[in-house]
Design goal:
By secondary structure, the protein is an alpha/beta fold. The chain contains 18 helices and 20 strands. The chain is globular and about 70 Å long.
Length: 511
């Protein structure tokens, strides 16, 4: 089956179909736009009082714009690309990709440049890395269970320790042997040492067939002029023009299903503490599945509630530093593999788009710190965090303290669903009960499915969820998106973006 493009006419919604959408990030707004375009009555509830876009929002400070984590606009799915073109047809830039790894006070280009890497590591260390790689290819770990085993199979143990271990443990706050191999297979599927070297030795050009691209190695991407939030703010405006509603600062406190009709009553609270209730035929939720489980009535079984409570999330914060332009660097971002500093990655927002920075004499960097909500780093004052960023930037030799003229902090809770040893079993327990009991409840997005999806994969889950709602049955299995790494990294996503995702239809009540 060939899926329609996002710009093609969408099938009409059943008469008076109403859909409540929890969360105004890429998944929630994608679903809302497609459903509103089909004629459904759509209402989006976004808990942030100011920004739509979720982790793909663009925050602002004194005229500066900054991304929350860095979001490239590249997808192997033509349907996703067509959606972006439809929402923001005239404001997308094509930007060169430039990133490096900082390790032992030296820079390594990423994607890898083998002769530079040899020079930086030294002949002896490079020789040992080569032997380690050969050993991994000859004697791989069969059925790798954790991140360390999976990456060591692809690159060798020595390169794993140099280029993966420190950064990964900063991101997750846990040992690599405690991280499921699912995460490695999902995030860097298709990349190996051989492919990285082969890519570096050939002229850097983009294959004509986007499905052949290893996304980690792409050399250019599209990006909205003033950050990814520009896309989602435009999407929210289009939803409103189609007759939908987007409520900001609306926090959902109850999701009550009528077991006889499978219709839903949602209770939300606005920033002033005023409660409202709305009734819908269907609900599509992108809120963290751990949170959703506590909102549902009738309540989930104790086993499912316990599974939800056991799911974990990694949070992060960005220390935004404004400094003199000449003190900056040209990369889009730099991965910091030095264990002596806490910062994990540094974004250069001017390199993402010059329009993110209003003053050509200044630059704007985002120092990303990975943490857990409530820990010492998270609870530090903004002043202390800006001071920490200033100190660490100077320690890395990337700027002098006197070059930094201002700063602020942006916190992002539940940025990454944690892939520990037990997460898959917990998600399966919750999913089984939700699908058995709530036929008009649909999940989508990174936190809605507890999957470390990229922006485009989150959108794809929403597109499939919207089609299921319009069809009145679960035609597509949204859990397959980004679950089978072969599908999302090497599958024929452009020409047939939903092939293989059909499941046995489950009839849901008509609106």
């Amino acid at each position: 089956m060939t899926s329609p493009s996002a710009s093609a006419p969408v099938p009409p919604a059943p008469a008076n179909l109403s859909v409540g959408i929890i969360g105004g990030g890429p998944a929630g707004l994608t679903a809302a736009y497609l459903l509103a375009k089909a004629g459904a009555r759509v209402t989006v509830f976004e808990s942030d009082p100011e920004y739509v876009g979720g982790i793909s929002r663009t925050a602002r400070y004194k005229g500066f714009h900054f991304d929350i984590g860095g979001h490239r606009f590249f997808s192997k799915s033509r349907e996703v690309e067509a959606f972006w073109d439809e929402i923001l047809p005239d404001d997308m830039l094509t930007r060169p990709r430039s990133s490096r790894i900082y390790y032992r006070r030296k820079f390594f280009s990423y994607p890898l440049r083998p002769f530079e890497a040899l020079r930086n590591l030294g002949v002896f260390e490079s020789f040992l890395c080569g032997l380690s790689y050969l050993r991994a290819r000859l004697f791989p770990v069969r059925d790798p269970r954790n991140f360390e085993q999976w990456v060591s199979n692809q690159f060798g143990t020595r390169l794993f320790r140099i280029f993966f271990k420190t950064y990964t443990e900063k991101v997750w706050g846990m040992r690599c042997e405690d991280i499921s191999a699912d995460w490695a297979a999902q995030r860097i599927k298709g990349l190996s040492l051989g492919k990285a070297v082969f890519s570096a030795l050939l002229p850097r050009r983009q294959p004509a067939d986007r499905t052949a691209v290893v996304k980690t190695l792409i050399n250019s991407f599209r990006y909205p002029r003033k950050g990814p939030g520009m896309m989602w703010e435009a999407c929210a405006e289009k939803i409103t023009k189609l007759g939908g509603h987007v409520f900001m600062g609306a926090r959902v406190s109850r999701c009550v299903e009528d077991p006889a009709t499978h219709r839903w009553t949602l209770t939300t609270t606005d920033p002033a503490g005023q409660a409202r209730t709305d009734t819908f035929d269907h609900i599509l939720s992108t809120t963290p599945i751990r949170t959703l489980a506590t909102l549902l009535e009738p309540p989930l079984a104790p086993a499912a509630l316990a599974a939800a409570a056991a799911l974990r999330y990694r949070d992060f914060l960005t220390v935004v530093l404004i400094l003199r332009a000449e003190a900056s660097f040209d990369d889009n971002w730099i991965y910091i593999h030095e264990p002596e500093v806490k910062v994990g990655r540094i974004q250069n927002f001017r390199s993402w788009s010059p329009e993110m920075v209003p003053d050509p004499a200044l630059s704007c960097l985002g120092l990303e710190y990975f943490c857990f909500e409530g820990d010492q780093l998270w609870e530090s004052s903004d002043e202390a965090l800006v001071a920490l960023g200033r100190t660490e930037l100077a320690r890395l030799g990337l700027a002098r303290p006197e070059d930094i003229v201002d700063g602020c902090v942006v916190r992002q809770p539940k940025a990454y669903p944690v892939y520990d040893d037990a997460y898959a079993a917990h998600v399966a327990t919750i999913r089984d009960e939700l699908e058995a009991r709530f036929p008009t409840l649909h999940l989508a997005g990174r936190n809605g499915l507890h999957k470390y999806n990229n922006q485009d994969h989150s959108m794809m889950t929403a597109m499939l969820g919207a089609r299921n709602i319009l069809a009145g049955r679960r035609v597509y299995n949204v859990w397959q998106v980004n679950e089978d790494a072969e599908y999302h990294e090497a599958g024929k996503a452009g020409a047939d973006s939903t092939s293989g995702l059909r499941q046995t239809p489950t009839r849901v009540p008509a609106a």
